[in-house]
Design a protein that fits this description.
The protein is 42% helix and 21% strand. It is α/β, with parallel strands linked by helices. A five-stranded parallel β-sheet has the order 2-1-3-4-5, with helices on both faces. Strands 6-7-8-9 form a four-stranded antiparallel β-sheet, with helices on one face. A hairpin with a 4-residue loop joins strand 7 (140-143) and strand 8 (148-151). Keywords: DNA-binding, Phosphoprotein, Transcription, Transcription regulation.
Length: 232
């Protein structure tokens, strides 16, 4: 049975030991690095399924590591950092991180984020073919070729903007997308003045695909950061 490989990039020995113990109990394979340069070498040689990355490393900022890795790989990157400001989260996610967890963190939450990243990694092959395939997520279906959306087998009408929003979220299921990323993908620009419009369209989209928009199943809000499509 294949055991996922995790690369832990962390310079705090106490946190590294905590993660080692946690990954051991879950029977993951893992490798650790304490510097950014070491992390970049290990990302190539160890070829991990997921990277757990601290931003405050002694030789390099973690955001720079994310950008470098994104130059050649889409392997999932979960940031675990003491930086808790929204701007820090947005910068890391815009650079290409898949998720962001703030220290101190819950082990259960870290494992849940790790499982979600692994599910996304395993789905990458199918995701690459979604332009000509059909997307299924719970009772939600998107027929990309026909440009149609179905909920519980019944077609629902979406405006062109709502459809683009849904497709962007669906193609990145499980990944937090920042406001800037979504604005660039849907509108072609990322002006701060467009963010209120994004919220309005997201609200109308939710009314159409969520049975209870006040307790959404599909589209999760990350306040001050962006949105995520949840895998059902």
């Amino acid at each position: 049975m294949y055991k996922p490989k995790i690369l832990v990039v962390e310079d705090d020995p106490a946190i590294t030991n905590l993660m080692r113990t946690t990954l051991d109990t879950q029977e993951y394979q893992y490798h650790t690095a304490r510097t950014g340069s070491g992390a970049l070498l290990d990302a190539v040689s160890y070829n991990p399924d997921v990277i757990i990355l601290d931003l405050g490393l002694p030789d390099m900022d973690g955001v720079d590591i994310i950008r470098k890795i994104r130059g050649w790989s889409e392997m999932p990157i979960i940031v675990v950092s003491a930086r808790s400001e929204d701007q820090d989260k947005v910068e890391a996610l815009d650079a290409g991180a898949d998720d962001y967890l703030t220290k101190p963190f819950s082990i259960d939450e870290l494992l849940a984020r790790l499982r979600a990243a692994l599910r996304r990694s395993r789905a990458d092959y199918g995701t690459a073919q979604q332009n000509t395939a059909v997307y299924h997520n719970g009772s939600l279906t998107i027929d990309y070729a026909a440009g149609c959306v179905y909920l519980d087998g019944e077609e629902i009408h979406l405006t062109p903007i709502e459809y683009k929003l849904l497709c962007v979220l669906a193609r990145n299921t499980g990944k937090v997308l920042t406001h800037n990323y979504i604005l660039k993908e849907v509108w072609g620009s990322a002006l701060a003045s467009d963010t209120p419009s994004l919220r309005v369209f997201m609200a109308t989209l939710r009314k159409k695909i969520e049975k209870d928009p006040s307790a959404p199943r599909y589209i999760q809000t990350h306040i001050g950061v962006g949105y995520r499509m949840i895998r059902q």
